[in-house]
Amino acid sequence: LYPEGKKSIFSLRIDVDEVPDEQQFLEYLSVFERYGACVTLFCSASAFEGKEHLIERAVKEGLDIQSHGYYHYTHNDYGNLYNNISRAKDFFDDLGVKTEGFAAPMGKYNDNLTKVLEALGYKYSSDFSFDYLNFPHYPMVGKKVSKVLQLPIFPVCPELMFNAGLTEDEVYDYFVSAVDSIKESGLPVILYAHTNKFCDKVIKFLERIMERISNDDELHKCTSTDFARWCLDIEDTEFSSEYGILNPAVISGAISLPDKALFGVRSKNGLKTVLKERVREIIDCEDIVPMEELEGSKPRMFMKKMVRNLKKEKKGSVH
Questions:
Q1: pLDDT tens across 142-154, in order?
Q2: Which residues lie below 8 Å from residue 171, measured CB to CB, with a gap of 6+?
Q3: For residues 81 and 105, is the Cβ–Cβ distance under 8 A?
Q4: How far apart are CA 250 and CA 1, in angstroms?
Q5: Are 162 and 193 in contact (CB under 8 A)?
């Protein structure tokens, strides 16, 4: 099923939401460069304004650079999504980086995202609110199968576990067990992490887990982009267009489910939380993109501005 007859593939996805500081980012790069054959950096372009030399350094070292948008936010509407993602594409193009892959900030997915990615010529995306722990496949947008391949990943990042108080050994053991379980199931093993200024333990963890995986002969190591290209090369086009998935092995049983504990549980929220989240979704609540760069109806923009002002006042009242 996989290249070289391996049990599975392994790839490490790094979401670069921010550049903590130049020295810390270079420490991350020193790890990524050692294992560059299986690392993809999905970069928020705005984080590199004025620091373009860091992208150039990563490219020079052969690292796979793909898009995480310009601003670290995934809007619901087509217009603002297009503006954000196309601006990032222009930013990378100007640096000579031709992006063909995308990962949505916060893993958020909607149909407009796929439409924008199609319009901009992206080949693949990886958005875990759409799917995770699965074989790559195509979303349905209405009654149409999208042309943008989705690469499901394992949606647990080590920073969350460190911030919850787990030790380095506990986090390492958890991910080793997860990698082995996913590999044995026949699904692709794609882990993800961030360049996180609040959690310096992540660098040491990544060194440790990557060293262990580099010695696993049952895994084919590749970047996200390499894996997406391989999928596009081997896909059964007729089967894909009918079912939206890449390989009949998923149906025939060649792939099994990993440990069910890895799939997590769905949380149950109270009515107040549900209503609050619904309102946030309707007005697309965020305070990342400057108001003057947003587009939308006057009532929606008014509500958005009002919520931003309330958040500022709330922050200002905290001493």
A1: 888 899 999 999 9
A2: 158, 161, 162, 201, 205
A3: no
A4: 11
A5: no
